[in-house]
Amino acid sequence: xxxxxxxxxxxGLIPGGIGIVRVSGDKAVAVCEPLVRLKKxxxxxxxxxxxxxxxxxxxxxVIDEALIAVLRAPHSYTAEDTVELQCHGGPxxxxxxxxxxxxxxxxxxxxxxxxxxxxxxxRLDLSEAEAVMDLISAGSELARETALKQLQGKNSALIRxxxxxxxxxxxxxxxxxxxxxxxxxxDYEKEAEPFIQDLIREIEGLLKTAxxxxxxxxxxxxxxxxxxxxxxxxxxNCLLGYERAIxxxxxxxxxxxxxxxxxxxxxxxxxxxTAGIRESADVVEKIGIDRALxxxxxxxxxxxxxxxxxxxxxxxxxxxxxxxxxxxxxxxxKSDLGLKEDPAALEARYGCxxxxxxxxxxxxxEAVLEKIRTLFRLSEIRQQPLLVTNLRHKELLxxxxxxxxxxxxxxxxxxxxxxxxxxxxxxxxxxxRILGEEVEEDLVNEIFxxxxxxx
Length: 455
Fold this sequence. Notes:
Structural class: alpha/beta
Mean pLDDT: 84
Largest sheet: 7 strands, mixed
Number of strands: 13
CATH class of the largest domain: Alpha Beta
Number of helices: 17
CATH superfamily of the largest domain: P-loop containing nucleotide triphosphate hydrolases
CATH topology of the largest domain: Rossmann fold
Distance between the termini: 17 Å
CATH architecture of the largest domain: 3-Layer(aba) Sandwich
């Protein structure tokens, strides 16, 4: 990697009170020094980890007043010399300061390049670096807590402990194979087998948390389905608190899926309002219906809205059958008009939780949301010490588990010990790739390309 000096706006281009231009690299101070005017000293004389009041100026004059901080390697985010120019937060001002820094010799940073340098310089492992983006994009308190634990190295510490155990056992085996006169392998199988079984149990336990981790990071993909004109869009608007979807008395108004996120405590729903499902000769409406059916297939949760002011129809029953096997709830809307069906009786008949609600006045919605929290075990998830929230980590844990299962079979079949070392080292390397050891450059570039600019 070319470790030249890079710069970017690290606070985004949304107007605010303060905006930060970050400069990192061996020449960060030298690049910024001609632009920074301090009262009694030059930038190169500034103490590390202190804030100085000054001005940012180019050949045309003063651009802005700012607070300036110099962070010396390795005690900075990137583990390189870093200068932070804390300016007023107007996008035009920040862009003008950044332009001056780039003209002075810095290069515009790529997305995620500051965090990438922190990883390459050894300040963060790859798992911790990925947690930075999870923390930025966290949509709930539980997601924030989980990302912070990973950023603080809780997951990494467990992976390092597992690898240390594997390395110790493998090193002993290798030494015994090279020097059989001084190392005894007679009872090694009795010691190695429970060790490998313990590793398998630990990794299986981590893998069981992966689905919970997906719920945290991505939210619960929730398809809202039902016949036309039962109140699906009204229900979505009621949850969101504003009119996101068009609502009319005309059946078939919603022609396409509409997606929005909704948060309730630690619950995040990715709501998909779909077209009313019915037989239709209208080409455009039929496309919307097909998309609604596809949304059901991909959903983690299906909310079937029915008109509670009427008895349940054959079409409602067909939709219930359509989402059988999915986590689902039946919501009898228009309870403010009086319910024609008993929710408890329908729940007993169809084996599907059923609630009376009113999208008009919001009654019954909180009970529905609490039920969803229970179905997805959010209270239990909060109690788990570690969660796997990253698909890459999940795949590598599966790879390590497969290698350890091979190692267990190798032991049980009394195969040569050198085959056992191969299986153990395969598991060791798979776990190491979670931390960023032995990863390809293309993968590293792909991971950090998903970061926001300036981070």
